[in-house]
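Suppose a colleague, Dr. K., hands you the sequence of a protein chain of 126 amino acids and asks what its three-dimensional shape might be. Before reaching for any lab equipment, you can write down a predicted structure in token form. Begin with the sequence itself:
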Amino acid sequence: MSTPTKDEFENVGTYTVGVTTITARGEYKGVAVRPGDRVWLTQEEQILTANAPRSDAANPLANGMLKLIAEGGNLLNRRPLRPSTEEEVATVVAQSEDAPEGTRPPTEEVATPVQAPAPKRAAAKA
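The predicted structure, expressed as tokens, is then:
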């Protein structure tokens, strides 16, 4: 079973709008999208969201409240999965040049362990 493609939308309006999503269990769930927030919706979720309001004017996909940012089928991941090799090498080289061997670089944070308090002893009975 393939994963459905999702498109990215941004709430460009001035108030929160609702969208309908489908959970992994196939249940419909309403989600609030605040101004400036983004949401990923499948085609089926877009249809459910468009059909949910009582009037066409309240449809966030048609009235301009939810703006299409990216079609999922046309893009790969836009965020880095891990630092690039060049960044990792530059960081290691910079750290090794900052401090002489046997010392720590000035930017390295060192934690001081906290010693647990000694247990209280019960008073001796006479």
